[in-house]
Design goal:
Its cofactor is pyridoxal 5'-phosphate. This is Branched-chain-amino-acid aminotransferase. Its EC number is 2.6.1.42. By secondary structure, the protein is an alpha+beta fold. It has 2 domains: 165 residues, D-amino Acid Aminotransferase, Chain A, domain 1; 163 residues, D-amino Acid Aminotransferase, subunit A, domain 2 (D-amino Acid Aminotransferase, Chain A, domain 2). The chain has 9 helices and 18 strands. The strands form 2 sheets. Strands 1, 2, 3, 4, 5, 6, 7, 8 and 18 form a 9-stranded mixed sheet that branches. The chain is globular, with a radius of gyration of 21 Å. The model has no long low-confidence stretch (mean pLDDT 95). It binds pyridoxal-5'-phosphate (PLP). The site of pyridoxal-5'-phosphate has 15 residues, from helix 7 and strand 15. Pyridoxal-5'-phosphate binds next to helix 7 and strand 15.
Length: 360
């Protein structure tokens, strides 16, 4: 849907070179031919929507984003279905969350039609970059930054740039269970803070803990609040007690994952008792040691549904089940991937097809 977008001519990457790049791309380091940019100013609102070559942005070194961190983003994927169609997964849910993040960061609202229209325009133009390999996808990164050149910090910026870029993504960890670190010194987000907004600043503050966790042989950090589990740094957490599927209730230090929401619906549809209730760290350990807690998994766009096999903490660690991927985790993953890739029916209307005629 290029309507409203000025389309600049871009020389596409030759097919053979593209195939080579897509085959060896380390995640997030190879990008498609195009990007979308849309500008906002207090006087004009959203204007100057463009589909253009993926290229460096020209910004003033005084642009507010560099100094005061006004930045929000989204993460989602385009999939190629078994039938060859290109689809987005729940793009209106991302649009809604982007609007909520913008509101929390005092940034202008990107209307859902503009947000989804930008994604459609980019994916249609770069359709050839959507991998046909199972488990692979085209990762989409919409973001907004404050571009007004001023060091003055007396009000939110009066100029912004909304951008969408895309990067082919290979298979995530897949079935390899993660080891996670229970972080008891640092926090990711504070009550009343920006934890429920998807903003870059939340990530910057977690790098140190993430590095220390990696030094302990862990893949991810578990963020806690008052001795209860909030989430991982980039995904939400689920706990399986035999048949029951549990995740902590949303609060202002948890990012409301769209995968989390989808898993809650799928688990209920598969007949699992489903609950959103707090999970204390002490209960987590006790339930795992007693064998009542049978599986733990993470949910998020980047790594989909990934089992957690072991937990480490300053005072020792414990294993979940036999440390391998559990039945419920595996089943939910198959269901979700099946819907995303069109091999299972989509009674929820989650899959959004990119029309062929949109191709530039
Ligand atoms: C993006 C994100 C998630 C996962 O959200 P999805 O919509 O499922 O991809 C979870 N936690 C944090 C902190 C995030 O930024």
């Amino acid at each position: 849907m290029s309507a409203g977008f000025t389309v600049e001519r871009v020389e596409p990457t030759p097919a053979r070179e593209r195939a080579r790049l897509m085959a060896d791309a380390p995640f997030g380091e190879v990008f498609t031919d195009h990007m979308v940019t849309v500008r906002w100013s207090a006087g004009q609102g959203w204007h100057d929507a463009r589909l253009r070559a993926h290229a460096p942005l020209v910004l003033s070194p005084a642009a507010q984003v560099f100094h005061y961190g006004q930045e929000i983003f989204e993460g989602m994927k385009a999939y190629r279905t078994a039938g060859g169609a290109v689809v987005l997964f729940r793009p209106y849910a991302n649009a809604e969350r982007f609007a909520a993040s913008a509101s929390r960061m005092a940034m202008p609202d990107v209307p859902a039609e503009l947000f989804v229209g930008a994604l459609e325009t980019l994916v249609a133009a770069d359709r050839e970059w959507v991998p046909a390999v199972e488990g692979h996808s085209l990762y989409l990164r919409p973001f907004m930054i404050a571009t007004q050149p001023t060091l003055g910090f007396y009000r939110p910026a009066q100029e912004y740039l909304f951008v969408v870029i895309a990067a082919p993504a290979g298979a995530y960890f897949g079935d390899r269970p993660m080891t996670v670190w229970l972080e008891t010194e640092y926090t990711r987000a504070a009550p009343g803070g920006t934890g429920a907004a998807k903003c870059g600043g939340n990530y910057a503050g977690t790098l140190l803990a993430q590095r220390r966790a990696a030094d302990q042989g862990c893949d991810q950090v578990v963020w806690l609040r008052d001795g209860h589990v909030d989430e991982l740094g980039t995904s939400n957490l689920f706990f399986v007690y035999g048949d029951e599927v549990v995740t902590p209730p949303l609060n202002d230090t948890i990012l409301a994952g769209i995968t989390r929401d989808s898993v809650l619906a799928l688990a209920a549809a598969l007949g699992h008792p489903v609950a959103e209730r707090p999970v204390g760290v002490a209960q987590w350990r006790a339930a795992a040691e007693q064998g009542r807690l049978t599986e733990v998994f993470s949910s998020g766009t980047s790594s989909m549904i990934t089992p957690v096999g072991a937990v480490r903490a300053a005072d020792g660690g414990f294993t979940i089940g036999d440390g391998g991927p559990g039945k419920v985790t595996t089943r939910l993953r198959e269901e979700l991937l099946g819907i995303q890739t069109g091999v299972r029916p989509d009674p929820y209307g989650w899959v959004h097809t990119i029309a062929e005629e949109d191709s530039a």
